[in-house]
């Protein structure tokens, strides 16, 4: 095993240690394979990460070894990779990497980073998201095809709200829809819009979709995970390698490709070929910026006409004003009155 190789990435030279270390035992993919993959899709993943504080999901010994999420920028990061100081719900803060060139992605891959989790903000404005991210998460008894059906209904709903989404596979069974928005609303407001969209999609597909936070209430449906829009919640970016046995990747798609696509079609080997043929099919996302006014009007109407207010936050978030009891319904029913 070679001790190190040097890779040319744009105008940078990135040193890759232990290039032959196996990261994916079943297909035999190595650290060098991962690095070369990220070079092949460099402009595409940079489009998804540019200037965004990014959490690194690291697997230093490959997918069969231990892993961890690294929020704070490594102390030895190069000075050409800028950082952004983000604030957690706890009040603490951290300086996270904000990639501005493909070499930053390859540098992180050398640390065993497979999956990149960017915040929905840019380092120039860390309090106002510029993406609304909708995670269609299959629950037990459902799968990718069910998520696609929900996504197609969601597409029409977004259009009615004056929004346009760009779909991608999660790299697993789910579907992600990203909507570029004007950075004029804070995290709670963007989350409120996501809740309103989730509830409306559930009304339109009551047997197929749920917005219930508690797993015991979801059933065999597609869960619209509105809490992915909460502060400090991130979604794997487009082109990220996922820690699956065969190195699947989160694949950007055109809407017309979504029904026929299969998540297993997109992996570390096949995505570079697709990228060479069609490029980044989400390349135009940054040219658009939509408004949430209509979605927030829907939230107002839900509250006014149906008495539907906030929904529970994740367990590690501070209690929010107006948030309902953060206890699963079956336990709440057993509490003494």
What's this entry about, in short?
This protein has helices at 31-40, 42-49, 102-110, 144-160, 187-204, 215-218, 270-278, 293-306, 329-332; strands at 4-9, 12-17, 22-24, 29-30, 54-58, 68-70, 83-87, 93-97, 113-118, 131-138, 166-169, 175-180, 209-210, 222-224.
Name the features:
337 residues, globular
What does this structure look like?
The structure is a single chain. The protein is an alpha+beta fold. The protein has helices at 31-40, 42-49, 102-110, 144-160, 187-204, 215-218, 270-278, 293-306, 329-332, and strands at 4-9, 12-17, 22-24, 29-30, 54-58, 68-70, 83-87, 93-97, 113-118, 131-138, 166-169, 175-180, 209-210, 222-224. The strands form five sheets. The protein has a five-stranded mixed beta sheet. A three-stranded antiparallel beta sheet has the order 6-5-9. Strands 1-2 form a two-stranded antiparallel ribbon. α1 runs antiparallel to α3 (102-110). The radius of gyration is 20 Å and the shape is globular.
Helix content: 25-40%
The percent range for strand residues is 15-25%
Ends distance? 66 Å
Per DSSP E runs of 2 or more residues, the count of β-strands stands at: 14
**N-to-C order of helices and strands:** EEEEHHEEEEHEEHEEHEHEHHH
Instruction: State mean pLDDT (0 to 100 scale).
Output: 95
Tally of individual helices: 9
Structural class: alpha+beta
Q: How can the largest sheet be summarized?
A: 5 strands, mixed
What sort of overall outline do the alpha carbons produce when their principal axes are compared? globular
Radius of gyration: 20 Å
Note poorly predicted spans. none
Please state how the strands of the largest beta sheet are arranged side by side: 11-12-10-14-13
């Amino acid at each position: 095993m070679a001790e190190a190789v040097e890779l040319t990435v744009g105008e940078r030279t990135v040193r890759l240690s232990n290039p032959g270390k196996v990261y994916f035992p079943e297909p035999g993919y190595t650290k060098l394979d991962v690095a070369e993959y990220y070079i092949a899709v460099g402009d595409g993943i940079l489009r998804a990460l540019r200037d965004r504080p990014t959490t690194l999901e690291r697997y230093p010994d490959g997918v069969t070894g231990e892993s961890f999420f690294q929020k704070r920028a490594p102390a030895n990061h190069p000075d050409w990779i800028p950082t952004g100081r983000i604030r957690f719900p706890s009040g603490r803060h951290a300086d996270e990497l904000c990639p501005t060139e493909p070499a930053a992605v390859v540098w992180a891959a050398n640390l065993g980073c497979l999956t990149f989790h960017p915040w929905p903000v840019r380092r120039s404005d860390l309090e106002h998201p510029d993406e609304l991210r909708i995670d269609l998460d299959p629950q037990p008894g459902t799968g990718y095809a069910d998520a696609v059906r929900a996504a197609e209904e969601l597409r029409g709903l977004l259009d009615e709200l004056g929004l346009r989404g760009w779909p991608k596979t999660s790299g697993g069974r789910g579907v992600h829809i990203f909507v570029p928005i004007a950075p004029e609303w804070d995290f709670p407001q963007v989350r409120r819009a996501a809740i309103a969209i989730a509830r409306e999609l559930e009304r339109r597909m009551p047997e197929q979709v749920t917005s219930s936070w508690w797993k015991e209430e979801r059933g065999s449906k597609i869960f619209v995970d509105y809490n992915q829009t909460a502060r400090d919640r991130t979604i794997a970016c487009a082109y990220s390698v996922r820690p699956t046995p065969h190195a699947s990747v989160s694949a950007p798609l055109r809407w017309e490709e979504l029904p026929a696509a299969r998540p297993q079609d997109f992996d570390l080997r096949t995505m570079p070929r697709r990228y060479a043929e069609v490029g980044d099919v989400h390349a135009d996302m940054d040219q658009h910026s939509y408004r949430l006014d209509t979605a927030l009007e829907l939230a107002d109407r839900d509250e006014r006409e149906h008495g539907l207010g906030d929904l529970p936050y994740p367990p590690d978030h501070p209690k929010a004003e107006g948030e309902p009891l953060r206890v699963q319904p079956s336990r709440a029913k057993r509490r003494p009155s």
